[in-house]
Amino acid sequence: MKALSAKALIKILEQNGFVLSRQKGSHAIFRNIKTNIMVPVPFHGKNKPIHIGTFLAIVKQSKIPKNKFLR
Q: Which of 6, 33, 37, 66 is most buried by its number of CB atoms within 10 A?
């Protein structure tokens, strides 16, 4: 699996029911309305890929199937 940019990751999260809950500095916290799962997304450059470890942790926390994150 290849890491995505913050902009692409947010688009996928929003398509799966996540909304922006709050933002502090360079991190946005997204919350799923139905499951109440919270996922932090770093904004260290919108088009810059998120580090692979951070990206995989976000995928795991969101409980969205991995195939939805494939380009």
A: 6
The domains of the chain, with CATH numbers, are 6-65 (3.30.920.30)
In angstroms, rounded to a whole number, what is the distance separating the alpha carbons of residues 61 and 37?
8
| pTM, two decimal places | 0.89
β 27-32/38-42 pair status: antiparallel
Between strands 38-42 and 18-24, the pairing is unpaired
SS (H, E, C) 10-71: HHHHHHCCEEEEEEECCEEEEEECCCCCEEEEECCCCCCECCHHHHHHHHHHHCCCHHHHCC
Question: Starting at the edge strand that comes first in sequence, how are the strands of the sheet with 18-24 ordered?
Answer: 18-24, 27-32, 38-42
